[in-house]
Design goal:
Elements: H1 7-20, H2 33-42, H3 48-61, H4 65-71, H5 73-79, H6 86-104, H7 112-115, H8 123-134, H9 143-152, H10 160-170, H11 176-189, H12 208-214
Helix pairs in contact: 2-8, 4-6, 5-6, 9-11
Length: 216
């Protein structure tokens, strides 16, 4: 049976991640909350590198929700085609911009609940925006966070929602946002989906996956 990590072991993992990735941060490029919201919507099933190449041009041309609405879905789709799912993303972005204008005076709402009323904005996207744009402690569970946290033992859940709850219990609230970025860094660089690089991983002594693999 898979043994669970203790509270102290989970805190040790966070300490090691802090030492390993002291500069962990959001890898999407943005200069304001609105740009971050657009970039995060574009990042669904797309790499941050590709999104950044797209938004480098996009953000120079389009500055406000009004700009996106005036451009329209068809023309926006052409500009974001390289990010994939361009039809649904262009629709969500334009509809979100309409709602921002109508309901929020073209400002980005500061709460998770309000952000989730916007088309195409789920809990993960809302968490990314409030934590990185407004400094609200939050843990956005993307594919990397879900995989890594359940693999090493910080979480023990089969759903995104419960994984987020597990991480909130395991990690001090003032470290939620930084932990989110550190886990993503670890997932992209070491704890990869198909071939985790356990032999060079700083978490080997704490990791449930490595303990189980080592016994085989």
């Amino acid at each position: 049976m898979k043994k669970k990590l203790t509270k102290l072991e989970k805190l040790k993992i966070i300490d090691i991640l802090e030492e390993t990735y002291p500069d962990a941060r959001a890898e999407l490029d943005f200069t304001n909350p609105f740009e971050l919201l657009i970039a995060t919507i574009l990042s669904a099933q797309c790499t941050d590198v590709r999104v950044n190449k797209t938004t480098e041009i996009l953000f120079n041309e389009l500055k406000t929700p009004e700009d996106y609405v005036n451009l329209g879905k068809v023309e926006l789709e052409k500009k974001i085609k390289s990010c994939g799912l361009s039809n649904s993303k262009s629709n969500n972005i334009v509809e979100t911009c309409k709602l921002l204008i109508e309901k929020f005076n073209s400002n980005i709402p500061h709460t998770i609940e309000e952000l989730m009323t916007l088309p195409g904005v789920g809990k993960k996207t809302a968490n990314v925006v409030v934590s990185n744009a407004f400094g609200t402690p939050a843990i956005a569970v993307d594919t990397h966070v879900f995989r890594v946290s359940n693999r090493i033992g910080l979480a023990n859940s089969k759903t995104v929602e419960n994984t987020e709850k597990d991480l909130q219990k395991a990690i001090p609230e003032d470290k939620w946002t930084k932990a989110h970025h550190m886990i993503i860094f670890h997932g992209r660089r070491i704890c990869k989906a198909r071939n985790p690089m356990c032999e060079v991983c700083a978490l080997r002594d704490c990791c449930l996956y490595y303990r189980n693999e080592d016994k085989k």
